[in-house]
Amino acid sequence: MQFDTTSFRARYRAEINPRYSAWLHGGFVLLFGALCIGFLWSRAENVQPWEWLAVPLALILQNWGEYMVHQHLGHFKHRFSKMFYQRHTGDHHSFFAYGQMSYERAQDWRVIFFPAWLIVVFAAANLASYWVLSHWNTNVAALFSGSMLLGYLAYEILHACEHLPEQHPISKLPWVRHMRRLHELHHARDLMQTFNFNVVFPLWDWIYGTLYWENEGHIEDRKKMTSMQHHIDIRRSPEQVLGYLSTPTRWHEWHHYPVAIKGPSGSLPAGAEFAYTGGRAGHLLWDVIEYVPGHRWQARARGRYGLMMFVTYECKPMGTMTRFTRTLEYRFSHLIGRLANHLFLRKRIEKDSADLLDNLSTVAEKVIPASSASSPR
pLDDT digit string (tens) for 294-310? Predict the structure, then answer.
């Protein structure tokens, strides 16, 4: 069932203190942060070439911290960070959903920006780091600590830009448009715990294999996908066979490796979603695209390293038997995934696909009752 974002927005706005000022909120964060950066950078004098390396080092470290905090605290509940989890997943992801990413009034900035006091805490931590590092090298201390604060402000600014109305001139800037699309995909409720945690620059999403891209309208170029097809004959009706195979919670019965499924039971219709763990693919998020009982079932999976996969099950009556055809199409958008697929994965996946159907041929007639005319549950 789709989440009612409009109703949540109305409730959230009704609870905002009437004295809240979005301009004061955003202005304080930017001004206070800029003043702290100016103070820190003013401490640097006669900077040597190697000392400038403190700037990219700090930005990379801040980008990593953004990724880790967003993924592990923003999307998984812990006792010590439950307030942050509630504000992020509970409020921000409920206020902004896939297809409803734009703020509508300045009051909405409250659910975009971090609380104003957080910039004070972050600045205090970096002033402390400056004091510690200055005992070794004042220039490195000033550049490093100031750049960490710069990364914080970059997050606040770019995150706000990613929630601008689509027609806003800033939204059309190339980098903002690109990151806005990645952030919108992150706000899809089935993707938010798995993909696109960086907001400013997707460095660590790329490194950890959690970078996910999907064209507008879910249009995929199927010609670029690796494709393989296998079939077997099963002495059961097409309705029985497809009803059984379109029930993911029973996949463990015919897969030759351990499989764990988290999702609804029974034969899944179009629009259903489930999570899968097992085999070479690891953790996958699935959504069913099509289900025509007795004829065709198709689902799409998304995984790490830019994996996009389509599995199609087709059944055709052959006298007293059913010709079952399994078609697998997949591609990796991540360089590491594409390289691994070229070097060794394709052969292994092809063998796994053949082994799956060999195993199914020995299992299907044992677990599908000969007299049953309904889909198994």
Answer: 899 999 999 888 888 99
List the structure tokens of 173.
């800037």
Q: Is beta strand 259-262 parallel, antiparallel or unpaired with respect to 226-234? A: unpaired
- Domain coordinates of the chain in residue numbers? 5-209, 220-367
How many residues are there in the chain? 377
pLDDT tens digit sequence for 72-97:
999 988 888 889 999 999 899 999 98
Under a CB-based contact definition with an 8 Å cutoff, are residues 13 and 107 in contact?
yes
- Residues 6+ positions from 93 with CB-CB distance below 8 Å: 187, 189, 192
CA distance 87 to 112: 10
In this prediction, residues 198-222 reach a mean pLDDT of 78
- Cα dist from 50 to 143, 147, 300, whole Å: 12, 15, 49
pLDDT grade, residue 376 (50/70/90)? very low
Of 95, 135, 137, 131, nearest in space to 112 by CA: 95
Topology (CATH) of 220-367: Alpha-D-Glucose-1,6-Bisphosphate; Chain A, domain 4 (3.30.530)
Q: What are the start-end ranges of the E strands in the chain?
A: 226-234, 259-262, 273-278, 282-292, 296-303, 307-318, 321-332
